[in-house]
Amino acid sequence: MKNIAVFASGSGSNFQAIVDVVQAGELDANLSLLVCDRPGAICLERAEMAGIPSFVFKAKDYSSKEDYENEILAELKKHQVEFIVLAGYMRLIGSTLLREFEGRIVNIHPSLLPDFPGKDAIGQALVARAKWSGVTIHFVDEGMDTGPIIVQERVRLDKNETRKSLQEKIHKIEHKLYPSILQMLLTQGGVTNDKKTRAY
Ligand code: GAR
């Protein structure tokens, strides 16, 4: 079984979904570490409740991304982490981590990339009055939500869609899709075709 680390910045509902499947024996992985860039974030409480070690840092305490990523790297090595799962981690991954974990970092994003990359994808979809949005899981490269796409799942926006209702729809998809794709990536090294074009 591979040792994985989840990186998160906020509430960590996706982190929790991963904790739940690991604890239920439905994801063949050891959840070895939570990395969080916001002291006080709810995801840290979730990690504590689940007995998962966490590493928390503040980017502004370091002089560069390389500096804090070197520290993260040391933690990842200490916990023998082999695969990184970004789940609401609101920072770009730099070359220090990308070099060490090439092809072994995935991210989940709340839109159908390349639409609405970056921050507040849900707000962007609402402002654009999009008819469809969704969820993308992709490998991470040096760009902002630009790496090779693994899977996407669509969600239809209703006429009176609100931020809250769209976020709920997206979270519902994310909490099922991420664990199932992780299981495929970690155990089969790939994703089967039927997962690639599922419409919600
Ligand atoms: C998720 O919806 C995730 O897709 C998004 O942040 C949310 C975190 O929710 N990620 C991004 O926007 C990355 N660009 P959570 O903290 O409840 O898991």
TrEMBL record:
The keyword Transferase applies. Residues 2-181 form the Formyl transferase N-terminal domain. The record marks 145 as: Raises pKa of active site His. CDD domains: FMT_core_GART. It comes from the Bacteria. The active site is at 109 (proton donor). Keywords: Purine biosynthesis, Transferase. N(1)-(5-phospho-beta-D-ribosyl)glycinamide binds at residues 12-14. Pathway: Purine metabolism; IMP biosynthesis via de novo pathway; N(2)-formyl-N(1)-(5-phospho-D-ribosyl)glycinamide from N(1)-(5-phospho-D-ribosyl)glycinamide (10-formyl THF route): step 1/1. It catalyses: N(1)-(5-phospho-beta-D-ribosyl)glycinamide + (6R)-10-formyltetrahydrofolate = N(2)-formyl-N(1)-(5-phospho-beta-D-ribosyl)glycinamide + (6S)-5,6,7,8-tetrahydrofolate + H(+). HAMAP family: PurN. This is Phosphoribosylglycinamide formyltransferase.
